[in-house]
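Entry for the shared binder. Reason: the reviewer on the internal report wants the predicted structure included alongside the sequence.
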Amino acid sequence: MRKTLLFLTLTIALVASACSSDDSWFTGEDGGDDNNSGAVTSSGELVIEIDGEEIVLASGLSGFDDCDALLDHLREEAAERVGPYGFNGGGWYGPGRFGGDDIAVDMAMSEEAAFDTDDSSMDSGSMESGDDSFEETSASTDGDSARLVEGVDFSGTNVQEVGVDEADLVKTDGERVFILANNELTIVDVNRRAVVASIDLVDVGWNAEMFLLGDEILLVSQTWSDMWPVLPVDSSSSSTGDAEAEFADVEDDMYYEEDYYNTSMVNIARISVAGNNPTLSEAILVEGEYVSARSIAGVARVIIRSSPQQNFPFVYPQNENGEDVATRANQDAVRNSELTDWLPGYVAINDEMQPTESGILSNCGQVHAPTEFAGFGVVTVLSIPVDGDINPNQNTSVLAPGSTVYASTESVFVATQTWVDPILFEDDNDSWEEVWNARQTSIHRFAISGDGAAYTASGAVAGDIRDQFSFSEYNGHLRVITTTGESWDESSETFVRVLREGDGELREVGSAGDMGNGEAVQSVRFVGDVGYVVTFRQVDPFYTLDLSDPENPRVVGELKIPGFSSYLHPIGSGRVLGVGSDGTEDGRITGSKVSVFDVSDPANPEEVAVWTAPDGWTDVGWDHRSFLWWEAEQLAVVPVQIWSESWAGAVVLKVEGSEIREVGRIDHIEEKDEPGSTECDRLTSEDLPDSNDDGEFETELQWMLQDDYGRVLVCGPDDSHRASGFECYDEPWYEDEADRLGLDIPSDSSIVICWRSEQLPVIGRTMVIDGDELWSFSGQWGLNAQSPARIQLNDLFDLDELDSIQIG
């Protein structure tokens, strides 16, 4: 069974939504300090003094009484900062960085497709105590009374926090496996070991991920609209001065107008898979970029960031002569702006692929702005039940950039490096360096309440964070691992900082440092009131933290060993598994490494067992979802590539107390197949009606047929479009060339072009199903939603191959 899901390119008017009142301005009392330069106020502001002037680098958020107040704020802040090159005069810390994303966000308008949005408001939540102690199960099927039990009968997505599911390319309920690959959503029946249905995700985009709940899938991806035109600059209507006359004086060398053809969009679709009949239920397209998503108790929180940079008819000078004129014209453009220029728009689509409504996604009463300007980005948290209707009004927004997402069962936190306004430091590199050395990470908390999420507090911590594992919420406190300084000049120092919410602020109540001096953080993991941190420069200091007293966190243990762990996974009984890189005493990386740490005595952590793969590499530290820990058998499955052996696959490791041993390896290398073997028919030069003796080619297809490097296949509807040892792609445009050359291609067949490949299939996910089968998923360049994939089944205990399934 195969269906097609076509995400239409829609030309929709974006209409401003109604406004409602929300939080009033709040203020915080100054107080507290930091272990680094600058003073931090109780509201999370970092204040440093440069040339006798106090500069505020971070602050809390405030709400707006109505849409007019929000628009006035946006116009005023932008007019002060827009320059001859639009909003690209600065951004986060450091010269030349941007506070928003350089993405096109202008949408064309169509009157017949325009709809108004309804007003909405959301209840705010409060930070509650919670136990985020580690468990290896996820919430991919929560809310469904399934016959099979995750963690017992099958494994789920490897997640950071128990009860907080993370979107992924592969999901299962133990009876079916769902995989995003080859631009399809494919359903595999576990008992039959066969594909039972698929649905084409035409133009769905890239970076696609999904949640599964019962018979519903929520798909999130990044995409672009097609050719959204921008009206040319009309200086007579957009300018309040005499810029048009000034343009005439410098027209030859002054400016150009830039056209933007596409809009960055986030595509969110709900797909019913009941009866193994995948069908689109509804979808929504939102302007912006997909950051991340989490699902708690069956409700997904999708985090989207957008930028207004290209919503404006900005002009750009060719040289310095036109900068003043361009600046005035661009200031006029932002002073005449509307909310549709600033806030992300959306288009809702029904199950018949027809638009049902559109408008501004963010409700004015749910938009919050920093009390000090934080950049030209907008971060929106959109709440969507995985198995329920998509309500575009269920959202809240912050006028600030956002890049890292952490979620507990109580909260969603969005963090980013704090904005520094470049207009404060024009032509002053010394000041830039001072500000960089005092850089901060801004953190915004959204409380989870029912089916929504409401902004409640902001704060800032000194230094940089590594990733989502740098955060942990536990018993009403947020623990954060940050690094100040630079590892390259050995000025870096790593801290654990504990924050508590109060009066709309995330205030630091305790901290401890003196970790990894001169080194960079490689991995972090929190388990209840204990934390683990790994830093590295030449050796791996493995630190243990006592966080039982939030106001007095302590570094209690340290272990120095060669190499480092880029991912840490608690495995019970006072043990932590570390996955990363092996190395020499002088810091040279020599391969992959898996360590067992005994942390039963936090003051005296020990590395009690080691497995290594010389010349090996694993990407678990970059994508923790590729790691599998099967508690029932104390097995770890780690994807590894070993260059010296020309091998890529997964290693199965057995952990027995303080020992670790390799059980075996699996791979998707098709050694049994001859290079080029295929189910399809191969075309060669002998199939050409006329031979070509002079070396001149009328078409590219003709050249392909007379060259032995590649392969030209004709694949029927039931054939696997692939050849062993080759990378193969459907090339429908070659059908016209085949007709010109007189080749007889059946109407139900496809032309497939294959190129020799030295790249080995890379295993990107593994899971246990039925308690005794190890399922693995690979792609030629790693698993992704666009490329073909292979599924292989091995016996969990002897690792004998049982079956395989090709997707695409």
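Summary line for the report: The radius of gyration is 28 Å.
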